[in-house]
Structures are given as structure tokens and as C-alpha cells.
Design a protein that fits this description.
Structural class: alpha/beta
Distance between the termini: 66 Å
Strand content: 5-15%
Number of strands: 11
Largest sheet: 5 strands, parallel
Low-confidence stretches: 6-21
Radius of gyration: 22 Å
Strand order of the largest sheet: 3-2-1-4-5
Number of helices: 12
Shape: globular
Order of helices and strands: HEHEEHEHEHHEEHEEHEHHEHH
Helix content: 40-55%
Amino acid sequence: MRKINVLILSLIFLLSANLFAEYSRIVSLAPSVTESLYELGIKDELVANTTYCRDIDEKNKKEKIGTVTDPNIEKIILLKPDLIISTKEGNNKNSIEKLMRLKLPVYVMETVESFDDICNNFLQLAEYIGKKETGEKIISDIKNELKEISHNKKKNDDMKVFWEVGANPIFTVGKNSYVNDFNKFAGGKNIFADMNMRYPNVNIESVLERNPDVIILVDMGDVGKEEVKRWQKYKTLNAVKNDKIIMLEAKEIFTPTPKTFLDGLKKLQSKFFE
């Protein structure tokens, strides 16, 4: 009987070891994927990522396999990955399909339109790579922090907010973007939350008409420091009168993972609402 119990325990140990050793050569094709893996405690198993992805430290510099939209397929093949993680929204569809046709192991993360989507995506990935309990603990802790932050948002609820994520032409944040949820937790009302799109194109006249109290410029693409000067010309805007035109870095907003969402929310609060 004792021998049988020892055998069973040995089998359980081996199965558990294999569960966490299943993927040892992971390639990330997006910054949000890389950050998700770091949050789940995956760093040594990550062998390569994109030029837009950060390395967690000097000792863990990863091989770069190109950009999010133009990954180097040949280089990826040479790395002999046992898992490639991509995103439906950020990555080039043709590149992903090519990797799949080559019978490479590709996991595709879904597009996110809300904070809940970010959490669900993260948990699905965590379960896929054998980190379900870690993922659940992370989500639980972050949701508790968000509750604390939300308790203080009432004083900001009447503040009208304009998000600018593209300058020429002007693109903003609509109802179906997870960025809209930053206001849900921090306070303020997105002036274009009535638009059933993720990133609708708007004109200057419509921004002036809705007269935001805060303008949030996300530093990406053609949205740079010149945009601050552009809006400062409109002296009737409440945001100009209040000196509430401030820029956030794209990585603080557009790297949708649970932790980066929380970090971006804290940065938003510190710059706009405190």
C-alpha cells in the first residue's frame, strides 16, 4: 500500500512539473503580451519579443524579432519556439496566418473593449500557460485596489474629459474602448462616450462645442508636444482656462494588462484629478 501511495505522489509531482515546464521557449509578438507574461512571473521562458517590448532587466534582455506589425518570420522559426503569443488587434493578420500555416504553435489573445475584457483575456492566457491561480490572485488584488480608487472619484464625476489619440485627423476615445473605463474608475466624463465606436474621428468644432474641462493627449504617432500648443490657442476652452492639458505616454494607456491599467489609472489621477 505504501509503495502505491509513493507511486501516486511521484506521478502527481511529475505531472505538476510538466504543467509548468510545458512552455520553455515563448515568443511574444506584442508589448501587452510581454507585460502579461512578466506579471505572471514568466521571464526566463520568454526568449524573444518585439522592438516595442521592454526587457524586465539587464540580465533578461530578449532577442528582438521585429515590430508588432512586421515580425521577422524567419528569425522566429530559427528560435524554435514552443509557443508564440500574439494579439488579434495589434498584430498583422497575414503574419499570424503565415505562422499558423507553418504549423507553429500560436496563441491569439482577443481584442479588448473594456477593463473586464482585459481581465478575462489575462485569465485565459494565465490558464493556458499553467498560471491560473497566479492570474486569479493578481486580478483579485487589482480589483480591490480599483475599489479603493473608485471611492474617491465622486468629486471628479462632473469633469468633462476629452481624449486625443490621433491628431491629423483627430481621433478620440469612444464608448467601445477600454480607455473609456479609465474615467469609470478615476472619475470624469468622456465627452465622446456616446459614440458607439472605439476610436472615432472627430473635428475641432465638436470638441469646442462640448467644451472639455480636461484634455488628455496620448503621446503616440502624430500626437506630440505641438498638440498642447494647438489647443492652447482656443482660450474659451475650460481645459485651457484650467491649465488642464497634459500628455500621457502611450505605454501608460495602450498596453492593456491588469497591472498596466491600474498603473495608468494612478498616473491619470495624479496628473488630472488630485
